[in-house]
Amino acid sequence: MKKVEAIIKPFKLDEVKDALGEVGVKGMTVTEVKGFGRTGGKREVYRGSAYVVDFVPKVKVEVVVPDAVVVAVLEAIETAAKTGRIGDGKIFVSPIEEAVRIRTGERGEDAV
């Protein structure tokens, strides 16, 4: 199993959710996050003064999926989240050693 974490623009969340549903993802965790990458934030003007907003609002989508569908999940997220502009986000993939569904005690891929 793999955990796929995607940091995306907030307005792309519905498109990403729909795309993941089409490849068979049945559940996900979504968190509102803030951060910055290579661009270091963005410049804004407030009452005539320019300042840098260091942390840009983003959304983190987390899914745990069987190894067999990781490539499809990555392609779905990348296609749905892409605007072609700076700040589209990143996708990270990590191995998952074990998963347990607390209610039933199911383990491994059955728990996902």
Descriptive account of the structure:
By secondary structure, the chain is an alpha+beta fold. It has a single domain, classed as Alpha-Beta Plaits, CATH 3.30.70. The chain has two helices and six strands, in the order βαββββαβ. Helix 1 packs antiparallel against helix 2. The radius of gyration is 17 Å and the shape is elongated.
Any descriptors?
two-stranded antiparallel sheet, Alpha-Beta Plaits, alpha+beta, elongated, 112 residues
Known CATH architecture: 2-Layer Sandwich
User: What would the CATH topology be?
Assistant: Alpha-Beta Plaits
What's the number of structural domains?
Answer: 1
Stretches where pLDDT is under 50 for at least 5 consecutive residues are none
Helix count from the secondary structure assignment: 2
Largest sheet: 4 strands, antiparallel
Please tell me how large the radius of gyration is. Answer: 17 Å
Helix content: 10-25%
β content, as a range?
35-45%
The largest sheet has its strands arranged as 2-5-1-6
> Quaternary status of these chains?
single chain
From the N-terminal CA to the C-terminal CA, the straight-line distance is 9 Å
Order of helices and strands: EHEEEEHE
Q: How many strand units? A: 6
Mean pLDDT: 91
What is this structure's SSE topology?
Layout: E1 2-8, H1 13-22, E2 29-35, E3 42-46, E4 49-53, E5 56-65, H2 70-81, E6 89-95
Antiparallel strand pairs: 1-5, 1-6, 2-5, 3-4
Helix pairs in contact: 1-2
